[in-house]
């Protein structure tokens, strides 16, 4: 996947909510992010009770959490949050290695997923990307996703050049309006291309936009 370099990033302020129940991990994450002036930590959440309501009150750009901690936030809790908190981006940082739960979490619509082995640089890039609404998956997670898909040799040839360009942007999490602005098209035209891509590639979930873009070499793993 193509990652933005820190030098090219603009400097808006992003509001973050951290939901972890591991004091040392939370303290380390807070200490690291507090040194970055673009980030403001709105609140910390230590209980899964009424989590969607707590996040709504904080009104953050990004939730950083882990659904794989005993007695804490589950995938069902995460689904409730995603379904009920509008315009929320979610970044998972987890040691989970179960393919089914990882894929399920991604299919909920989360923007990013890191393992706990990722570097500080990758963490910083992930927080920047997901806070502004872009997708970011570390290499281990992308490998897990790709293991679920066997590419078809004809996949690359059945799309038009314009559809390939739009697929690349869809895989990176761009909105219909942003793609329309980039290519000087109407949102309706972009939606028409999107529907054509879904039909031709038989796409059934947002995750598959990323899978096909990787297979076709439109984006690369970091």
Describe this structure in words.
The protein has helices at residues 23-34, 51-58, 75-84, 99-107, 120-131, 139-147, 161-171, 176-183, 187-201, 207-215, and strands spanning 14-19, 39-45, 62-65, 89-94, 112-115, 136-137. The protein has a 6-stranded parallel β-sheet with strand order 2-1-3-4-5-6, sandwiched between helices. The chain has 2 domains: 6-147, Response regulator (Rossmann fold); 161-215, Arc Repressor Mutant, subunit A (Orthogonal Bundle). Mean pLDDT is 83; it is low at 1-9. The longest helix has 15 residues, at 187-201. It is built from 10 helices and 6 strands; from the N terminus they run βαβαβαβαβαβααααα. It starts with 13 loop residues before the first strand and ends in a 7-residue tail after the last helix. The protein is α/β, with parallel strands linked by helices and 222 residues long.
Topology readout:
Elements: E1 14-19, H1 23-34, E2 39-45, H2 51-58, E3 62-65, H3 75-84, E4 89-94, H4 99-107, E5 112-115, H5 120-131, E6 136-137, H6 139-147, H7 161-171, H8 176-183, H9 187-201, H10 207-215
Parallel strand pairs: 1-2, 1-3, 3-4, 4-5, 5-6
Helix pairs in contact: 7-9, 7-10, 8-9
What attributes characterize this protein structure?
six-stranded parallel sheet, Rossmann fold, alpha/beta, disordered N terminus, 6 strands, 10 helices, Arc Repressor Mutant, subunit A
Number of strands: 6
Cα radius of gyration in angstroms: 18 Å
Q: State the assembly state of the protein chains.
A: single chain
Assign an overall shape: globular
CATH class of the largest domain: Alpha Beta
Portion in beta strands? 5-15%
Low-confidence stretches: 1-9
Main beta sheet strand tally, sense and closure: 6 strands, parallel
Q: Distance between the terminal alpha carbons, to the nearest Å?
A: 5 Å
